[in-house]
Amino acid sequence: MKDWFLLPSIVSAGGVMVALAEGQMELQSSDDAARKTNSSDIVAGYIHSAEPWSSLVDEVNNDEWKAYTVFGREKEGRPGLVAYPAAIAKGNSVFLLVGSYELTYEPAKKHWALANWEAHVVVGEAKRSARKRSELINWSKPIPLSKQISLATHESDLKDVFGSGDSGVLMEDGTLVFSLMATKRNEEIVSMILYSSNNGSKWMLSAGTAPAKCIHPRITEWEKGKILMVAQCGNGQNVYESRDMGKNWTEAVGTLPGVWFKSRPGASWDKSLRVGDLITATIEGKKLMLYTRQGHPFWGTEAKALYLWVTDNSRTFHLGPLPTDYAVNETLENALLYSDGALHLSRESIVGTRRGISLARLTEELKTIKSTLSTWAQLDALFSKSSTPTAGLVGFLSNTSSGGNTWIDEYHCVNATVTKAAKVKNGFKFTAPGSRAMWSMSRWGPNRQYGFVNHKFTLVATVTIHQVPKGSTPLLGAGLGDGVGKKIIGLSYSMNKRWEKVFNGTKTASGSTWEPGSEYQVALMLDGDKGSVYVDGRIVGNPKTIPTLETQGLEIPQFYIGGDEGGNGNDVTVTNVFLYNRPLSVGELKMVKKSDDEKGDGDGKKGKGED
Question: Domain named Sialidase: which ranges (predicted)?
Answer without folding.
Answer: 8-325
